[in-house]
């Protein structure tokens, strides 16, 4: 296959796809119905033309018959007065009219048959046009309903996709919220334990010292209890009552002895 043929085929295929997208079946049906109406009108005009021609032939026949009757009457009158020559002339002319009338009657019969044929065709075409119109409206209604349903489904599909994205966003927000809550709780615990200092508030030195002393007391009491369990030494009651602060033992007083020879 040559390059030009391939390009032509590609162009035609793309053009057909573009036309399919642009084509609206309802418009196509309406156009087809309009064309059938135009054809039906042509057939009806044809029936009217044939009927007019038939009527004209009928008028011509009537006129010729009237002329023939008048010539026959003239021939009788001519014989009455003894003018055989005039009677013969009148009858000769009447004979010519009879020939014309016969031809016109044949033409009239043909026109009448054509008129009947066109009338039947017009009636059949009218029935087909009416049936096509009913079918057209049914197809249009079905197509419109299908189109509306398709748009609704597409809208629901878009909403479903959007809701899926919203669900993911909500999940991410919940995860971040839980993470921030856990972090805030951890910071609160660290601040409460003293591992972190709260620089946002005013520093209370007295309370900090009291907290430190309380922690030291707890440690001293725990050590005394452990020593008592190990039998190293009894837990002194004074240590427990005094809050674990070790008491100063009195230092033995030493006497100053003077060495011989030292001054007073």
Can you characterise this structure?
Residues 245-264 have a biased composition (Low complexity). InterPro entries: PspA_VIPP1. It holds the Pfam family PspA_IM30. Belongs to the PspA/Vipp/IM30 family. With 264 residues, the chain is mostly helical. The chain folds into 2 domains: 21-173, Helix Hairpins, CATH 1.10.287; 207-241, no CATH class. 82% of the residues lie in helices and 0% in strands. It is built from 5 helices and no strands. α2 runs antiparallel to α3. It is rod-shaped and about 190 Å long. The chain starts with a helix and ends in a 23-residue tail after the last helix. Residues 239-264 have low confidence and may be disordered.
Question: What is the gist of this entry?
Answer:
With 264 residues, the chain is mainly alpha-helical.
What topology emerges from the helices and strands here?
Layout: H1 3-22, H2 25-80, H3 84-193, H4 205-230, H5 237-241
Helix pairs in contact: 2-3
Strand content: under 5%
Straight-line distance between termini: 140 Å
Q: How many distinct folded domains?
A: 2
Radius of gyration: 64 Å
SSE string, helices as H and strands as E: HHHHH
In the CATH hierarchy, what is the architecture of the largest domain at level 2?
Answer: Orthogonal Bundle
Mean pLDDT value: 76
Overall CATH class of the largest domain = Mainly Alpha
Largest beta-sheet details: none
Structural class: mainly alpha
Q: Low-confidence parts, pLDDT < 50 over ≥5 residues?
A: 239-264
Helix content: over 70%
